[in-house]
Amino acid sequence: MKWDLPGLFSDKVKQLSTITNPTTYATWQQYLLEICGVAAFPQARAYLKEQLESESELVRQWAITAAGNSLNERWLPRLIDFLSEAPDRPYAKKALVQYGLGLIDILPDYFRRDEIDIEDVRRLPAVMEQIGQQATVNLLLAMLAKFYPSDLEFRLEAIRSLCKLRRNFPDLNMPAAQIY
Question: How far apart are CA 32 and CA 13, in angstroms?
Fold first, then answer.
């Protein structure tokens, strides 16, 4: 017997519209979004994309969590965008931290292509400080020197994050460099 998981998923999404009990509806919506975080079929990705734009704060937060659980690079730009939206920020930070070095490795490409708004860039150090890797230190220093050298607000956040990295991960190599 072969399971048609994409078909079953699509059927459950269609059945959502028939559920009248709000608690049951929310429970099924949460289950479907949890599935989206681990499923690799187009129906789940489409549903997750739709729910990331939900007007319901709770549904949007479940979707952000699912996107983070997926570790799929396609969700990174949207998750980074959520950093500038206060109600979703804690969920976006947690989701982005799950990407670990994958996030650190791809960020320079985003910076070179100028794909991230400066408001979101200013919030990235708070995410990066939780990824205790040498590559994180190197990227923060590169951001200070190369990518955003004249943005004072970013510089302050990056320096704070470097201090937290030094405190929380004492084995990391912090180069003795002057920061202007």
Answer: 8
CA angle at residue 96 from 124 to 25, to 5 degrees?
A: 130
The pLDDT tens digits for 79-105 are 999 999 999 999 999 999 999 999 999
Other CB atoms within a 10 A radius of the CB of residue 54 amount to 15
pTM to 2 decimals? Answer: 0.89
**Per-residue tokens: 136:** 């994180």
Mean pLDDT of 15-23: 88
CA 94 and chain centroid, separation: 7
Task: Please state, in angstroms and rounded to a whole number, the distance separating the CA atoms of residues 95 and 27.
Answer: 21
Q: Return d(Cα 172, Cα 13) in angstroms, integer.
A: 46
Q: What is the DSSP annotation of 71-136? A: T-GGGHHHHHHGGGSGGGHHHHHHHHHHHTHHHHHHHHHHHHTT-S-HHHHTTHHHHHTTS-SHHH
CB-based contact 141:105 (threshold 8 Å): no
Contact indicator for 117, 141 with CB cutoff of 8 Å: no
